[in-house]
Specification:
This protein is of the alpha+beta class and about 325 residues long. Helix content is about 35%, strand content about 30%. It has a twelve-stranded mixed β-sheet, with helices on both faces.
């Protein structure tokens, strides 16, 4: 009874099921874990549990992977009732608080605070210098807790979703730009674009470092196996100017491969090339609705990427929920 370290893989399924139950908001259904998300998460993590011996082996040969999915849980009445999960971002000293959840019947007893405080101490012990998390804009109790612990808001995200009965139309690439594929381990183009376009104010808590994009050897070897285990398939591309060849945007998506789940879409755009937003968003919607029809489409966009936010709304996506990003120096 009480708090203890998470023990993988034994805790995988109890933790996943507890997370799905804890992130339900009857007063605001848009905030809740959706049915398709829950199905995808549960199915994928069952298979991750099966390959955990391989993950353990990769952690032995790749030190950054040892900080994958760390955290604490709280047990009471013979069940897991609270959890916090943290992990290092790449090989940097920045850590991400991925999950803080407590079942509804066990809230307002300080469990979330105790779990997160333990997670923060674990980060410090492992050399973290900064940490970040996301909180739903409007979740006042969670925001108050994070602020009291020392987190401060520094940016935000808008999450869109939509359901398409027919494939979205394919747009034309504007003149003066070219498209090329972007491999899963092509970290340099991602790093160079992010370094150029990320607002300076964000870099206090999310510095653009090579270690954030350059995957360690163990993860490069494990990546395709994890994708298959989780029932996902990735595809990415980049857009660059036809003359100078400057990278100005990238897009990508993760599709479910076993009939359950969500089409997750991602986009990054240099604000100096806002005219590409219709093509970038339109192409992503066209490709996911063609390759993976019938699944809900989910797109998360930083608030500062205003042309993409506006274009997501223009192309019929719904503004589902907004998140505040909060950071703290350790």
């Amino acid at each position: 009874m009480g708090m203890r370290l998470i023990r993988w893989p034994a805790d995988i399924m109890p933790v996943v099921e507890m997370i799905v139950d804890s992130f339900q908001y009857p007063e605001n259904e848009a905030w809740s874990v959706q049915t398709d998300e829950a199905e995808q998460l549960i199915d994928g993590m069952k298979n991750v549990a099966r390959i955990w011996p391989l993950i353990r082996l990769m952690q032995v040969v790749s030190p950054p992977m040892r900080d994958l999915l760390q955290g604490y849980l709280w047990e009471e009445d013979g069940q897991i009732v609270g959890v916090t999960i943290v992990q290092r971002r790449g090989s940097t000293d920045l850590w991400v608080v991925g999950t803080v959840g407590v079942l509804p019947d066990y809230r307002r007893r300080g469990l979330a605070r105790k779990l997160l405080e333990a997670g923060l101490e674990l980060m410090r012990e492992r050399g973290a210098t900064k940490t970040i998390l996301g909180v739903i804009d409007g979740n006042i109790p969670a925001y108050a807790l994070y602020e009291d612990l020392g987190f401060e808001p520094y940016s935000g995200m808008v999450e869109f979703d939509g359901q398409f009965e027919e494939p979205a139309p394919a747009p034309e690439l504007p003149e003066g730009y070219q498209r090329s594929p972007l491999g899963p381990h092509d970290w340099q183009p991602r790093f160079e674009l992010e370094r150029r376009i990320t607002p300076g104010a964000l870099q206090r808590y999310e510095p653009v470092e090579e270690g954030r994009f350059k995957r360690p050897l163990g993860m490069r070897l494990l990546y395709p196996i994890l994708q298959r285990a989780q029932g996902m398939k990735d595809q990415d591309f980049c857009l660059h100017t036809a003359g100078e060849g400057q990278l100005v945007a990238r897009g990508g998506y993760t599709l479910p491969t076993r009939g359950k789940g969500v089409n997750n879409v991602r986009a990054r755009l240099d604000p100096a090339h806002a005219e590409l937003a219709p093509y970038l968003v339109g192409t992503l919607l066209h490709e996911v609705t063609t390759l993976s029809p019938g699944h809900r489409v989910d797109l998360a966009v930083p608030r500062w990427m205003a042309p993409v936010v506006a274009e997501a709304e223009e192309q019929g996506l719904n503004r589902r929920v907004e998140y505040l990003l909060m950071g703290m120096e350790l």
